[in-house]
Write a structure and sequence with these properties.
heterodimer; A: mainly alpha; two-stranded antiparallel sheet
Chain lengths: 299, 312
């Protein structure tokens, strides 16, 4: 009986890894910019589109298939470099200090624009390109077969979690971020260039979302509507963990990922509902999420 | 309520379809959406942004569809009343929890509820028709049966009367102590409590009213299309309701209705040659309104003629 649960657990954790990339980006942006970015899911979808297109192009050009791995990373970086500074500098910076409704609507408008841009550039068909997953093959432990790619996702998620923590605690930029989150005005008075901190934090957020999309594309492909779907999922996970809480997002992603894997196995109808049910239950008991404080101020 | 703008608005909306008949259906849907957006606008007055009011729109629509299919109710006004009642009842129950939350958390909890409803409507095929939805047959009006075309006329002009009654009612509500307290929640919630007014009760009444308005809009929308689908509860629908409210302006009761009619008009005009970029157009329009017309379209005349206070 227990044998049956381990593959489920691995499935759930691999799923959690992908959700974590997106949710942690959302939570990071919220904690620094205080903006709930509704367009966040779009970056996930765009990351996936770019990764699939780039991989297909690589293979069509006759280049070695192993190059699809750096292609995944490169796609995410390209999406972040293009959209991060552009959107933060052109639109978001005018909304700092404005009412939440305005901020949310501005990002909703960006979401709508990005939806159509995706359709114009990539069309309405779905794409699927699983070379990276095929290359890694599978491993058999205790008579059960696991996809190595799924294990890689889990490892990468842990690397990103630790990496973010180190970045925030030990790097200069991380310390500046903490300073800005703690007190924007005082940080500015002390000479911190807050606009740059905002831009960098937002770009990191975009990168994480695009990375999630790029890494998920070999397992699940990409189709229209992916951005909207991912958005609500990332919302739920970030809210469960406590908005602005990096470790909270990780724990929430694990809970949601594993719960979904169990739901798919036992009650498939509930698959879509699980994240929101967990979110309702958690927020009813702890209104600010698992790790949230009454005033979520920590990065 | 300024009687004149409302009458003017209703007269324009009533007159245009006489010249251009196909506009009638467009306006019917736009006004149905506008009612739901008006509900969202009420909460925005209190500084609460609901990212889940598609819940009540869908509940109103499905309630009408169920009454028609399973209970066998055929009367138009009974169907609508059913939609309002179901949405309002859900609004009270869910509102009891929601009024404890503010800002982002209020928005996200509403979102969670709407996504649960969406999944429920989409997955439980036996009960809700799944992703196929439910067909709503053409209702009768006070026992008289019409063909689809004539019913469209009856629906449209009944809707205009309903809008007139709703704008009157909501304006009265906003001028009542409960309604005045609603804006005060946004300004200073603690002060309101010191005055001995229960903020939770103020918000609960507003939440219930907004759910009822969304239910009314949903029931009319479902009947007008003749079909209800789970997508009515999807989160992008909720986003659109907020969008319409802000586009039209939340300062006046008429704002969301104007916003909805305006958006639907542009949508119809754009459908011919720019349907691929429709969302893009909406997005850009919204950004323009937010950055350059903070009071929405409703505030536009006042802005043009330099009477800022008139937009309040």
């Amino acid at each position: 009986m227990l044998q049956a649960f381990i593959p489920l657990l691995v499935d759930g954790l691999a799923n959690a890894a992908v959700i974590f990339f997106v949710a942690v980006g959302l939570t990071l942006v919220f904690s620094v910019l205080h903006i709930l970015n509704v367009a966040h899911g779009s970056f996930y979808a765009i990351g996936a589109y770019v990764a699939v297109s780039l991989s297909l192009w690589l293979l069509a050009a006759g280049l070695p298939p192993v190059l699809t791995f750096p292609a995944l990373l490169l796609s995410a970086a390209a999406v972040a470099a293009l959209f991060g500074p552009l959107i933060e500098r052109t639109f978001l910076r005018w909304t700092y200090g404005k009412p939440e409704a305005v901020q949310i609507l501005v990002t909703f408008a960006i979401f709508l624009i990005l939806e159509d841009l995706q359709r114009l550039v990539f069309g309405v068909q779905s794409f699927y390109q699983d070379t990276p997953m095929q290359l890694l093959g599978s491993i058999t432990i205790g008579g059960i077969m696991y996809l190595n790619y799924q294990l890689l996702l889990i490892v990468l998620a842990i690397v990103v979690l630790v990496g973010l923590r180190i970045l925030i605690n030990n790097s200069r930029m991380g310390k500046l971020m903490v300073a800005v989150v703690t007190d924007r005005e005082v940080a500015q008075t002390l000479g911190v260039r807050t606009d740059r901190v905002f831009m960098i934090a937002f770009t990191i957020g975009v990168f994480l979302a695009a990375l999630g999309g790029a890494l998920a594309s070999p397992t699940s492909g990409v189709a229209p509507g992916l951005g909207a779907e991912t958005m609500v999922l990332a919302f739920a996970v970030a809210a469960i963990g406590g908005l602005g809480q990096i470790e909270g997002a990780a724990l929430a992603a694990v809970i949601v990922g594993v719960a979904r894997a169990l739901a798919i196995y036992f009650v498939p109808e509930l698959d879509v509902v699980v994240p929101y049910l967990v979110m309702l239950l958690v927020l009813l008991v702890r209104p600010y999420g698992l790790f949230g404080r009454v005033q979520a101020r920590r990065v | 309520m300024r009687i004149l703008p409302t009458l003017l608005f209703l007269a324009i909306v009533a007159a245009l379809p006489i010249a251009v008949p196909w506009l009638q259906f467009v306006f019917t849907l736009a006004l149905a959406h506008g009612l739901a957006a008006l509900g969202v606008a009420l909460l925005l007055r209190a500084g609460l942004i609901s990212l889940g009011h598609a819940t009540y729109y869908a509940l109103g629509a499905y309630a009408a569809a169920f009454l028609s299919r399973s209970v066998g109710v055929t009367d138009f006004f009974v169907l609508i009343a059913g939609g309002i009642l179901v949405a309002a009842a859900a609004g009270v129950l869910i509102g009891l929890f929601m009024v404890r939350y503010r800002s982002i958390f209020f928005g996200m909890l509403n979102l969670a509820v709407s996504m649960i409803l969406f999944a429920f409507l989409a997955k439980f095929y036996g009960l809700t028709g799944g992703t196929d939805g439910i067909r709503v047959s053409t209702p009768t009006v006070f026992g008289a049966a019409f063909d689809r075309k004539t019913f469209g006329d009856v629906l449209f002009y009944s809707l205009l009367v309903i809008i007139a009654l709703v704008t009157f009612g909501v304006t009265r509500y906003l001028r009542s102590p409960m309604g005045e307290a609603l804006s005060a929640v946004h300004t200073n919630e603690v002060r309101l409590e010191y005055l001995g007014i229960s903020v939770n009760r103020v918000l609960l009444s507003a939440y219930t009213l907004s759910a009822a308005l969304a239910g009314l809009g949903g029931a009319i929308g479902g009947i007008a299309i003749g079909h209800v689908v789970p997508e009515m509860a999807y989160w992008t629908g909720s986003g659109h309701l907020v969008l319409v409210a802000v586009l039209g302006g939340i300062g006046g009761v008429l704002g969301p209705l104007i916003g909805s009619v305006f958006l639907e008009l542009v949508h119809t005009l754009a459908a011919g040659y720019a349907s691929d970029v429709w969302n893009l157009i909406v997005g850009v329009t919204l950004l323009f309104v937010i950055f350059f017309l903070p009071q929405g379209l409703y505030g536009l005349p006042a802005r043009l003629f330099g009477r800022k206070e008139a937009a309040k």
